[in-house]
Structures are given as structure tokens and as C-alpha cells.
Amino acid sequence: MESTLLRITSINLNGIRSAFNKGLLEWLRTNQADIVCMQELKAHLADIYEALRHPLDYTGHFCAAEKKGYSGVGIYLREQAERVMLGMDCEEFDAEGRVIRADWPKFSVVSAYLPSGSSGPERQEAKFRFLDKFGPWLQGLMDEHRTTGREFVICGDWNIAHKEIDLKNWKSNQKNSGFLPEERAWLTHVLTDLGFVDVFRQLDVRADQFTWWSNRGQAWAKNVGWRIDYQIATPGIASTARATSIYKDERFSDHAPLTVDYDISLS
Predict the structure, then answer these.
(1) Which of 15, 55, 148, 201 could form a disulfide with 42 if both were Cys (CB 3.0 to 4.6 A apart)?
(2) Global pTM value
(3) For the chain, which domains are there?
């Protein structure tokens, strides 16, 4: 396989129309990612007009939620995929637009938006149900990788800060959704037992590297954030990761874009 630089960016948009109104298009033009994984579209397909559907030289694919103005994931592709699949064969969460997968001959990328449990106990229980489904689904991807050699990058807003270094105020958040012991243990299982790699942490071990900031108070100004957006990859492609960055010069959302450059070809 001839290798070349493959740039993958992941961003929770907090509304695709809102993000474009805040200048996302011009940044996409500058960033020059080959694949852009998006979460929280907050739009039905009918509301994603042509300029948002296929901007610049991208082809867009989307998995919207049934509920209006809620959730949804998408992928912008420069090189057309062999196939694109929606969902993870789970009626409850496929209706929320949580997972989309694009395949090339030896590589797949997934854009995933894991539920937040911060709005209350009911949604936290839903989040645990999602993890119970998503874990075996990820195991299936790793099994496919080990059987066929197919490499995977799963991008997205995982709504879990894995370790104490991954959020500013970890001590006061140990009983809050996103940093609960059960959630962190689940992510450890994905990275340790299943064998996926946290690509950003492989390249950047510094503290205070966050991808989301609350809109309350001075969280953004004081960099009181959480690292809850990830690119989780199979070991082969993870080993080709050369550079990573979190873009914070402009704000398109309450999340920042996370970019990784891989030394690998799609074909």
C-alpha cells in the first residue's frame, strides 16, 4: 500500500447550520482535511441545503435523528467511499442518528456521537444502554480488523473524559456524567481489552488539552474544559499518525475541531 498523508478532522458542530454561520466553511477550505467527521447536526436531511450537503470538493453523507433539531452525524469525503452505512443495528439509538460508517478497500472511518447523560438520570441510563450496545459493536470492528486487516478510525464526541488529565476540574466532577467511574472504566475496556488506540494521547501527552468548554461562566476564556472528542483507531493505522491538533483560533461550536494526520492511503 503506497502511503500518503490522510488528514481526518472530527468536530461536534452543535448544529450544522449554526457552525456554517460562524465561519466553518472558510476554515474547512484552509484546513484541507480529506475526511471530516461531524456530530450533533441538529438538522433533518431536508434542512441540510445543498451548500451544506456538498461544500467545496466534499461529498456529504448524513445520518439524521428522527427527533427534530437533535443529534445526528455526518461525514464529508473528498474521495468517494465504496459504501456508507448508517447506524449499528440498534433501533433505539439508530433513531437518534448516532453512527455512520464509510468504507474504502482496506480502511473505514466512523463518525459517532455518544449520548450525554448530563440532563438527568433518564438520559444517563440511556447512555449506559448505548455503551452496552456500542461496546460489542466496537468489538465487532476489532474482530473484522484482525480477520481481514481492515483499519478503522472511530471519530467523534464520546462524552467521556477518560483520565484526570482530560478535564480541568476532575476532583469536583467525579460524580458527574462524563467522568463517572463506570464510564471511564468502559473507555479503558475499549482501549485496553479491545485494543483500540487513543490517537491524540499517543501523540500529545500534555495537560490542558481540551475539546469542549461549557458555555457557563468563563470556561472558554479560562480554558476550563474537557477532552471528550477522540479519534480511536486500530493499532496499524494508529502507528502511522504523524501530527495532531485542536483548533481554537475561532469558535464554530462549543467543541473544537480535532485533526490527525495519518501516513496512509485510502486505496
Answers:
(1) 15
(2) 0.97
(3) 5-263 (3.60.10.10)
